[in-house]
Amino acid sequence: MTSPAAEEQRVALAAVAGAHGIKGELRLKLFAEGLDSLKAHDTLIVGGKPAKLVSIRDGGKVAVARFEGVNDRGAAEKLRGTLIEVERDQLPSLDEGEFYFSDLIDLPVVDDAGEPIGHVVGVENFGASDIVEIEKPNGKRFMVPLTKAAVPEWDAEKLVVNADFVDA
C-alpha cells in the first residue's frame, strides 16, 4: 500500500474507460495532451501499481493501450475506472504560464474581495478554454472559465475568482 504523501506526488495522465477486444487492451480517457504524454514513460502506475506500457495507439475518441500482465478481457475489465499515473518528478518542466491541471485540484477559492468561496474539484477543457469546477461548502458546484476576466490570479495558495462569475 502506498502512503497518502506518495499518492500526492503522482499526476493522473489517463483513466481506464474499459476493455478493448479480448486480448487485454484498455480503452483510456486521456487527461494529458495526446498519446506522446504516455509514450514518454516505459513504466506507469496503473491502479496504484507499476506497470510496463507495451503499446498505445489512437482509438478515435479514446486511446487504446496494452500493459504487461494484462492479458485478457477479464483482467482489463477489472481495471475499469482506475487511474494511469506517473510520479510528478517524471513530468517535463513547465514554461512560464504553463501548469498541470492537478496543480489546481483542491486549491482554495476566494472571490476578488478575499471572501472564501470553496475549492477546485476539477479542470476540464471542452475546446474554447480551460474550465475550473468549484465546489462550495454546501456541496453546490459551478464552473468558471480559466480566463483573466474570470480568474484574475492564482498561485500555489489560492485561486481568485471575479465575484461576477461566482454562482450565487
What would you say this structure looks like, in words?
The protein is mainly beta and 168 residues long. The protein folds into 2 domains: 9-89, Beta Barrel (Elongation Factor Tu (Ef-tu), domain 3), CATH 2.40.30; 101-165, SH3 type barrels (Roll). The chain has 3 helices and 12 strands. The chain has helices at residues 4-8, 36-39, 73-78; strands spanning 10-20, 25-30, 43-46, 49-58, 63-67, 83-87, 108-111, 116-125, 130-135, 141-145, 153-154, 159-161. The strands form 2 sheets. It has a 6-stranded antiparallel beta barrel. It has a 6-stranded mixed beta sheet with strand order 10-9-8-7-12-11, with no helix packed on it. The longest helix is centred in the middle third of the chain and has 6 residues, at 73-78.
CATH T-level topology of the largest domain = Elongation Factor Tu (Ef-tu), domain 3
β-strand percent reads: 35-45%
Alpha carbon gap, first and last residue: 41 Å
Q: How many domains comprise the coordinates?
A: 2
- Using the CA coordinates, give the radius of gyration: 18 Å
Fraction of residues in helix: under 10%
Class per helix and strand makeup: mainly beta
H-E order: HEEHEEEHEEEEEEE
Q: What CATH first level of the largest domain would be assigned?
A: Mainly Beta
